[in-house]
Write a structure and sequence with these properties.
Blueprint lengths: L5 E2 L1 H9 L4 H13 L4 E4 H14 L2 H12 L3 E4 L3 H13 L4 H13 L2 E4 L12 E4 L1
Parallel strand pairs: 1-4, 2-3, 4-5
Helix pairs in contact: 1-2, 1-3, 3-4, 5-6
Length: 133
């Protein structure tokens, strides 16, 4: 694996909601922090985390969770044209949400894997390495 792993929004939502996979996400975050490394997440997927929390709780809680994420060993990657074009190429090929395409695109471009439990990523398995929760 060339670069740091990519977190899909599924992974952080599982972590915050104590869903299956939460302990593994916590372990990966702690391991990254101890090693002085950072996991990656696109700003698009961060937006997905925010709106998912708003839907189940409130904007205030979502903002608090974003501040918590900012203190974690996670680098938020902006969506430039290279990333957006690769995400759009994935979206053009199949039935994968556009936000998931950004996580997949970042993993492909960085030659690493996506950490997720979202079954939609099965459609990207030939293109991207997946670390299944």
């Amino acid at each position: 694996m060339a670069g740091p792993r990519v977190l899909d929004s599924f992974a952080l939502i599982a972590f915050f909601e104590d869903e299956p996979g939460a302990e593994e996400v916590e372990r990966l975050l702690l391991k990254a922090e101890e090693a002085g490394q950072r996991l990656l997440m696109t700003v698009v997927n961060l937006g997905e985390v925010w709106y998912s929390i708003v839907r189940t709780d409130s904007e205030k809680t979502a903002d608090e969770k974003i501040r918590e994420i900012e203190g974690m060993a996670i680098e938020i990657v902006d969506a430039d044209w290279t990333l957006t074009r690769q995400a759009a190429a994935f979206k053009a090929k199949g039935k994968v949400s556009y936000a998931d395409c950004f996580a997949g695109a970042l993993a492909k471009l960085r030659k690493t894997e996506v950490i997720t439990g979202d079954p939609e990523f099965k459609r990207l398995e030939g293109e991207v390495k997946i670390h299944w929760l």
